[in-house]
Amino acid sequence: MASKDDAKPGDGPRRPTPTHPPYDEMIATAIRSLCEEGGSSVSSISSYIQANYAGLPSGHDRLLPFYLNTYTANGLFMVSGPGHYNLSLTGGHQQQDGGGTAAAPDQPPPQP
């Protein structure tokens, strides 16, 4: 008979695959939609996400600050004031006008 020690990590019940987008996308959409002067607060970002996305994990209130700190450290978002976040200028979540790719800032524009 197998003991508890013989159990493999993947033998337990599986968590369902989330139906919501990744947290970085939800946060970026919230900040863009809220368009608050001085950046969006954690509570307003959380409220927006809860109102617009179903199937959030029960630990959403703990996960959101974790992801905000992680993504800010990685340059996706920036702190614009105490407890307020904005999209980073270089983070990759900026909307582009016209749907094309933007030229890198250190390269001259293409000649016609």
Automatic annotation (TrEMBL):
Segments of skewed composition (Basic and acidic residues): 1-14
Residue ranges the record marks as coiled coil: none
PROSITE patterns on file: H15
SUPFAM superfamilies in the record: Winged helix' DNA-binding domain
GO terms for biological process, alphabetical: chromosome condensation; negative regulation of DNA recombination; nucleosome assembly
GO molecular function: double-stranded DNA binding; nucleosomal DNA binding
Any one annotated GO CC term: nucleolus
Annotated region described as Disordered, given as residue ranges: 1-23, 88-112
InterPro entries assigned to the protein according to its UniProt record, in alphabetical order: Histone_H1/H5_H15, WH-like_DNA-bd_sf, WH_DNA-bd_sf
Cell compartments where the protein resides: Nucleus
Residue span(s) of domain H15: 19-89
Protein's UniProt name: HMG-Y-related protein A-like
Natural source organism: Ananas comosus (Pineapple)
